[in-house]
């Protein structure tokens, strides 16, 4: 029997984005780091910050890439 700490975090790909527990934790961490912030025009939406752009690009993520 495995403990909670030993269990892998569940992640799922949903409509080409990362979801599940892992996706939620990553997003929450990005908000904590200041990479994303709530939109001033719509508090239900988030926007990538200038810092977030720089850091994602450092990680090799192209924030402007759109997949078909």
Sum up the structure in keywords.
68 residues, alpha+beta, 32% helix
Q: Tell me about the biggest sheet? A: 2 strands, antiparallel
DSSP helix fraction: 25-40%
What's the total count of β strands? 4
Q: Give the C-alpha Rg.
A: 14 Å
Continuous helix count: 2
Task: Spell the H/E element sequence.
Answer: EEHEEH
Strand content: 15-25%
**Model regions low in confidence, pLDDT < 50 over at least 5 residues:** none
Average pLDDT, all residues: 84
| Oligomer class | single chain
Distance between the termini: 42 Å
Spatial order of the strands in the main sheet? 1-2
Q: Which word captures the global form?
A: globular
| Structural class based on helices, strands and sheet pairing | alpha+beta
Describe the structure.
With about 70 residues, this protein is an alpha+beta fold. Helices cover about 30% and strands about 20% of the residues. The protein contains two helices and four strands, in the order ββαββα. The strands form two sheets. It has a two-stranded antiparallel sheet. Strands 3-4 form a two-stranded antiparallel ribbon. The N and C termini lie far apart (about 40 Å). The mean pLDDT is about 85.
Secondary structure: elements and pairs:
Elements: E1 12-14, E2 17-19, H1 20-32, E3 36-38, E4 46-48, H2 50-58
Antiparallel strand pairs: 1-2, 3-4
Would you summarize the structure shown here?
This protein has 68 residues and is of the alpha+beta class. Helices cover 32% and strands 18% of the residues. Strands 1-2 form a two-stranded antiparallel ribbon. Strands 3-4 form a two-stranded antiparallel sheet.
């Amino acid at each position: 029997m495995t403990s909670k700490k030993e269990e892998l975090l569940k992640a799922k790909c949903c409509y080409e984005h990362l979801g599940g527990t892992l996706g939620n934790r990553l997003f929450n961490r990005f908000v904590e780091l200041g990479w994303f912030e709530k939109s001033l025009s719509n508090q239900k939406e988030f926007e990538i910050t200038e810092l977030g752009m720089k850091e994602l690009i450092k990680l090799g993520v192209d924030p402007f890439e759109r997949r078909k």
